[in-house]
Structure formats: structure tokens, C-alpha cells
Amino acid sequence: MDLRQLRNFVTVAEQSSFTRAARILGVAQPAVSTAIKKLETELGLVLLHRQDKRVQLTAEGQELLPHAKEILSRVELAESAMTRLQQLGRGEVKIALPGMIGSYYFPALLMAFHHRYPELKLSLIEAGTREIQSMIERDEIDIGIVIDGDTQPTLETIPLTKEEMIVACALDHPLAEKESIKFEEFLEHELVMFKRGYYHRERMDQMAKTHNLEPQLAFETNLIELIRSIVRQGFAITTVLKMVVDNDPQIKAVSFAEPLFMDLHVAWKRGRALTQADRTFLDFLLEQRDSAKSI
Asked: May I ask which residue range the UniProt record assigns to the signal sequence (predicted)?
């Protein structure tokens, strides 16, 4: 039994005619008859009743037909998937990442990737970790950058980097003189924080609950530059990834007494086959990660 025989059989069954089937398949009618006769011989079953110019399925033919259609459909899907994998030159990768990561960790990586693979299109979406996880599950994006993604059973993840969360305050803020800050001290001051739905905010809320303390929330925003501006002017303090304020001379970064870290992961849907474009982007990220570790 081969695919050509099954394709001939399905077409004849659908058309109830060898002549029409041959015309659709673009072959001579005897070739169709021969292929089906060979299939019947191999199976040891009669699949078609041949009555004058009409053809009808036998009981055995009716049993085989849905299986044959399923096989041909799966082969077609496989061929389409392989074609997509070969079409790297026309590929697109849809990526979602949190604002802090997108603004401070990824720009150089994305530019380097574009320089190496100018034919590939990168579509970027900014969202919080929870929303990114949902977008992956809904197949709205190909790859996401998530925090602590290894805890999600619906995702395939690979560790990307670990970044410290620090306290960010103005240079003349009382906390700026400290070498480290206890979490309880941090919560004694007015805060500017991300809105709910971002892992960063959830982590702070969870820690506040653990310490039975209520954060003094003065501002809520997901705009990184607005957060930095509020902190510079001394209106509030915040906690962000250290990379966000590393090169800002007007903001002091102070570690927590018990250092906090965020583990960043590259994630995609478990069980979903990556396209060649997705795999190329993923391999590039891991190459850059490993290069950074070796420095």
C-alpha cells in the first residue's frame, strides 16, 4: 500500500468514476484502474463494485476510505510543515517580552540578530509575564520571554539569564547611603510600581503579604521611563532589574539585604513544533547567552 494507490482510491471513491478520477489526477484511466487493482490484490479485498460506468464502494472500501483520507491529510500537513521549515528566507518570529527586558536587555540582541539574518522579520509585543504565558497557550506568539517560566507545565523553557532586583532611589534619598536595604525598610517608603499582572509586581505583593506589611503605593505605571523620572525626582522609590538603572547617574541602586533575583527564560508552547525561523532565533539567543557566560 503506497500513497499513490491511496490517492487514486480516494479520488475514485469521491467521484464514483474512474474516468473523472483520472481527469482530476492528470493520468490515463488505465493507470488509475491498475493502481487500485494492485491495492486490492495487496490487501486481499475487493474495494470497489464496478457496474457499467458507475463505481460504488464495497463494505471493505467504506471501511478503508476514512483511514485513507486521514493518511493523505496527515501527509499533506507534514509536507506543508516541511515546506515552512525550508522557507527561512520568508520567515517571521512573533516574540513577546516584558517591558523592562525589552527596553534594556534585548535591543542590542535584536539588532545583532537582524544584522546576521536581515531576511527574517521579528514582530515584538510588550506584555507582562502572565499575559505572555496566555498568549503562548493561545498560539498568538511563537516565543516569549518569561520570568520563572520553568514552573509552568504548559511551556517548554530554556534558562536565558538571571538578573538582580535592586532598590532604586534618588541620590539624596535617605536609603541611598545604605549598603543594603531590608525589605521591611523598603516598604516604609512611598513606591512607584508596575500594575498588577506583571510578575515584578506580583513578587513584591507576595513578599509584602509574607511580611504582613502593606506597601505605600504612590504611583502605578508600566512606563519604564516614567518610573525612572519619578525616582530621579525623589517622589518615590521602586525596585527594578539592576540593568534598568546601571547607566543612570541620577539614580542609586542598592541591593536588598537578602538579594533578590529574577530568572529569565525563553518559552514556547509545549508540544508545538518550532519553525525554522523560530529555531534560528532561539539558537541565536542561546549562542549569545553562552558567549556572555564565557566572558
From this structure: none
DSSP annotation of 264: E
- Tell me if residue 52 falls in helix, strand or coil: coil
- Cα separation, 84 vs 78, in Å, equals 10
Model pTM greater than 0.85?
A: no
Q: Which residues of 4-40 are buried (b: 16+ CB within 10 A; e: fewer)?
A: ebbbbbbbbbebebbebbbeebeeeeeebbebbeebb
End-to-end CA distance of the chain: 57
Long-range contacts of 18-25 (CB under 8 A, 24+ apart): 18/55, 19/53
- Are the C-beta atoms of 71 and 101 separated by less than 8 Å? no
pLDDT category, 102, cuts 50, 70, 90? confident
Q: Where residue 148 falls among pLDDT bands split at 50, 70, 90?
A: confident
- Percentage of the chain lying above the pLDDT 70 cut: 95
Q: List phi, psi (to 5°) of 196.
A: -60, 150
Residues 119 and 58 in one domain: no
- What's the confidence (pLDDT) of residue 88? 53
- Do residues 11 and 63 share a domain? yes
CB neighbours (10 Å) of residue 120?
19
Q: How far apart, in whole angstroms, are the C-alpha atoms of residue 49 and residue 7?
A: 18
Verify that 102 and 72 share a domain, yes or no: no
pLDDT the model gives residue 202: 83
Q: Determine the structural domain holding residue 113 and report its residue range.
A: 89-160+264-294
Rg (CA), the chain: 30
Q: Is the pLDDT of residue 276 over 60?
A: yes
Q: Is the pLDDT of residue 262 over 70?
A: yes
CB atoms within 10 A of CB 271: 7
How many structural domains are present in the chain? 3
